[in-house]
Design goal:
This protein is an alpha/beta fold. The chain has a single domain, classed as 3-Layer(aba) Sandwich (UDP-N-acetylmuramoyl-L-alanine:D-glutamate ligase). It is 30% helix and 19% strand. Strands 1, 5, 6, 7, 10, 11, 12, 13, 14 and 15 form a ten-stranded mixed β-sheet that branches. Strands 3-9-8-2-4 form a five-stranded mixed β-sheet, with helices on one face. The longest helix is centred in the C-terminal third of the chain and has 22 residues. It is globular, with a radius of gyration of 21 Å. The structure holds adenosine-5'-diphosphate (ADP) and ligand LQESDW3C. Its cofactor is Mg(2+). Its EC number is 2.7.1.73. Belongs to the carbohydrate kinase PfkB family.
Amino acid sequence: MRFPGRRKHKHYFPVDKKDPLTKKLTTDVELKHPYVVGMDQTIVDIEAHVPESLLAEFKLTKGLSQLVPSEIAEALYQYIDANNLIVDQHAGGTIGNTMHNYSVLADDRSVLYGVMSQNIKVGNYAYQYLCNTSSKVDLQHLQPVDGAIGRAFTLITEDGERTFAIDSGKMNRLTPDFIDEELIKNSCAFVISAYFTRCSGEDTLDKAALKAIEYANKHKVPVVLTLGTRFMIDEKPQWWRDFIKQHVQVLAMNEEEAEALVGHSDPLLAAEAALDLADLVLCTAGPLGLYMAGFTDETFKRDTRYPLLPGSIPEFNRYEYSRPLLKSLCSNPIKIYSHIAPYMGGPDKIKNTNGAGDGALAAVLHDIASNAYHSTNVPESSKHTVPAITYSSLSQMCKYANRVSFEVLSQSSPRLSKGLPEREDSLEQAYWH
Ligand SMILES: Nc1ncnc2c1ncn2[C@@H]1O[C@H](COP(=O)(O)OP(=O)(O)O)[C@@H](O)[C@H]1O
Ligand SMILES: Nc1nc2c(ncn2[C@@H]2O[C@H](COP(=O)(O)O)[C@@H](O)[C@H]2O)c(=O)[nH]1
């Protein structure tokens, strides 16, 4: 496990168990590695740069992810192929991306639940998916299906906005009997997107997801939900509020999804309202950067050393140096918030914003897993007198999440091709120095 950024040495690994002469860990110290489990629709992104008129022609709403019947998908494919509009094809899926990015950042194992075509040919979509996924993502738990995985036509318009037209294939056929209770029980987080509810006919992914969530809740493994796309939440906001309140501890969303969920267009107010539903909230807000909100106990709160910020909640960042806890573990819970503007103002040119939010979530997961790693291997550390969900403070996580989003935007692709540097070239600008 690579740690999220530079950290104080006193918290590093069992220094007291090192050989005093060689300064190496003695051989009988075997560090235990936590893993996160994600569940997703297995999807390949077919990225094409298109004029806005194409969206209207295919009745697609800009900025959203929408299912299309297979004959429309085929017509769309023929059109973008014939007009040479396809710029790339790569593995996608919101949780597939998140698991990949997590494994790249942490340099450690994650497990992906989903389906995979049982007949794979060199070059087909299933093959591309496997080739584009980090070797640290454990794909042994993909269920074989007779048919194609999903395709996401990722249509990038001139303003860099991405619109998805999804051709489902067999991506929703993961069955509940395939879910291993022990695998979920021993994980440090279970991660899912709201897309699991987009099932119909013979689809079983929704039932598989509910089974996995039931196991996670039973064994007190944090459930991390990302909201996917706005109009799914618009369709039944009360259902989602109830679902989150009952099953979810960590909630990730962008400002549009947040508005659909809790009715506030201001991301800070939306994050605050979402604390009625979940324990820890990440709300990304495009060019405005991102917000995090959570709980800490009155006894553990830590004042920020940054200037106090105005906003819809005045001086909202006062306790951003605190590490977040589950609300149920606080005797006197107080709400804590943090915000960060885009890293270095954002890349000079953003060709597309595909996957920026997934990148931020992967960073938060990395921090959660680092905490599990450290507390399992160094339980006596002073760090763990506070039963926090994360290794870092809210402020530090915002920096890290934001930095990862910047990397995704800079490389114009949702899956990181490499981890972040241990140290940034410019230490002045390095957030974690
Ligand atoms: N136009 C932009 N300029 C600068 N940074 C951006 C821009 N769009 C996104 N980002 C960065 O990427 C993060 C996630 O982006 P966002 O668009 O909110 O996520 P999503 O992909 O889920 O909609 C933001 O918090 C910000 O750090
Ligand atoms: N599992 C699903 N993933 C989907 C769907 N529609 C789009 N996507 C994936 O989202 C990422 C980009 O995410 P964002 O951060 O830009 O929102 C992309 O790689 C798509 O594959 C879906 O219906 N299900």
